[in-house]
Amino acid sequence: MTLRNDSLEASIRYDGSARSLQLVASAAAALTAFEGEAAAAGDGHVLTGPLSTANAKALQAAFPALRPQKIGGHRTSIGTGDRTGLATPGQARAFAAQGAGVMPVLAQQSIREMDRLGRSARSVMDDAIFGLVEAGWDSGFGADCDHIKTTEGIDRGLEAGFVMFTLDPGDMVADVTAGVTEADAEALPWDQLEDSLEALKQRYVGMTLDVGHSQIEVTEQDVLTAAVKYGRAVVESMRLYRHVTENAEHEVEVEFAVDETAWLTTFFEHFYMASELKRLGASWFSFAPATWMASRRAWTSWAMPRSCARTSRRITRSPSSSAATRSPCTRARTSSRSTRCASRPPRVWCT
User: Fold this and answer.
1) Domain residue spans of the chain
2) CA torsion sign, 16 to 20 to 23 to 29?
């Protein structure tokens, strides 16, 4: 397969198991950004070069389709998680044959996986780019630097050109199975939360969450439990979020994920964490708490976007409260048993 533009053709050449980049151009000037051996061929010029980072970057400059895109605006996307860097050509061909209307996230790897497999963020990106050239894919793709727990991991993803950053504060989620007291809540870092325990109670205690199949009356104990369980995760999420947004030199988008913890996320805990992140100024396109399916290692998660124009969920307060009615939307990334906002179809991920 071949990628083409007005001045250049790019393909992957096999010599046994060895691969190289082959470029054909009508003018020699179109090849100057690439590494390799160039020679005249008929009426044009041919270059054979290595599958190097320099050549991957030059391909991205020449072919816009090889630059990762934000996926938040797409109706459906699928993360493929090519762990070895060898599967992308086949994945892209499968999307071409059967995936009409689906945005593939073909460069998708967690920092943990990169370190275990001896890969770098840039090598993950390079492998995806050369795989797309081999498949002749020109319909765009996403790039997810997955399950990031440190600013160093964010920096690696930014340098490699990743666009989506899945921020994972799961290490800061507290075990509350033994119960929570008010003293536990008072010990939270309220200065970093830019809040107080009293103000937190005023916002949430007495609220009623209509989640479709039932209504949840939020008690003071619910609020204390959510705050102790996820309060420090909110602080950590904001630390990572600010690092991404303040250091990115290209457009990025964020997912928050606490789906790899040992404890499930209740409806109210989901609402609490999303609401607190929004209060502190964060925005995101996907939110992944830990559901019962995650506990069975399906790693399937619900997602709450920052806003949704249409919603079938209503979140209200008791008549004694003066707070306005709120209408956030809860949607599923993928689950056959889940409910979801009619305006937001599912996302499917392999994490």
Assistant:
1) 3-167, 170-332
2) negative
